[in-house]
Amino acid sequence: RWFRRQANFYVVYIAEAHAVDGWQTESNEAEGIRIPQATTFEERWSAAERCAAALGLSIPTLVDGMDDAARLAFAAWPERIFVFDRDGKLTYMGGPGPFGFDAGEAVDALRRLKAQG
Length: 117
What we know:
Strand order of the largest sheet: 1-2
Order of helices and strands: HEHHEHEEH
Shape: elongated
């Protein structure tokens, strides 16, 4: 609970990882999730809203621009966790997901920040 009171959390939607015109997964197909890769910001925004709703996210979702600046700057494809301190300094960079995605490491990074005051 401390984290919710003391830290800001965001999801940054960068692109559709399992687009029907890219790498559609069998599980998405079975669930009727058929999202093409966005060609406009409005399409990407819509896909991000659909994703947030489907996952029941309660944290704000930001959307990367069509220039993919966030994805490129943070090497965030397909997913990655970052922790920044209050001054905006990067204190933790997780490995690229899904295999390098370790929420426990991010929690440890948040605990270290808490201990520093």
